[in-house]
Amino acid sequence: MTTIAATPSGPVSTEQSARLRQQHRTRDRLKGLGFHAIVLAIVGVILYPAVWMLSSSFKPSSDIVGNVSLIPDAATFANFAKALDGIGGVSFWTFFTNSLILAIGSVVGITLSCSVSAYAFARIDFPGRNAFFALMIGTLLLPFHVVIIPQYIVFSRLELVDTFVPLLVGKFLAAEAFFVFLMVQFMRNLPRELDEAARIDGAGHVRIFTSIMLPLMKPALVTSSIFAFIWSWNDFFGPLLYLKDPDLATMPLALRLYVDQTTTSDYGAQMAMAVLALVPVLLFFLVFQRYLVEGVATQGLKG
Asked: Which of 33, 39, 52, 300 is deepest in the core (most CB within 10 A)?
């Protein structure tokens, strides 16, 4: 017995209805397959340079230039041995330690100074607060190359060139407006009733900041720490400008030393060091990625 079903276009039988449902499911599957194929193709294009770098770290230098293959013809670990030995009389661990000092110093300086500045902008009413905040945000529009010459002159006259001070002092003085802005927006989303309740109990700004704001700001602080660590670790221009002593060189500067247009370039060791330099950043990100997502997701633009 054939059942008749009514549709907007007229009555159809049970067999026709089942066939239409099957066609609809087939179209959905094809759309899903097409979407995933496009996404996988995009991911492949994005990840290809990283995979090629990892593959090239196991190739002899002569096989790297002009060879886009991802599979080494003759895999070797000699590149990593050369990278760990260092270059120019400076060991790999010296470069690594210098980068780690700058990265951790940047994280500590930014989380301390920017959180205090953000609390002042978000929670304390003082004359000219909005004007100072707008001026601080305006510094984000100022290109780095505009201020680098006067900054270098100042540090040179203070005899601080060839030290880590020029690369870290701004971090401890809340000179990174992006992180101040991020923390201000986070604090503005926290209810002011918390501050008022603490003041009723006799707490001042220091107690409110340390006991109430800092614990609640963990997502924003971790987000800032991740960005600060990665940006400092990957910074090339700053160390290139201020650090002249090879014993103070960082990982990005060490990578550049392996390429010399006047003599032989060791691309194999450079790829190996690039892989080793990427490991701390990946570990740092993987450990704190859930806080990064939470911190970015909770940032508003109100206020």
From this structure: 52
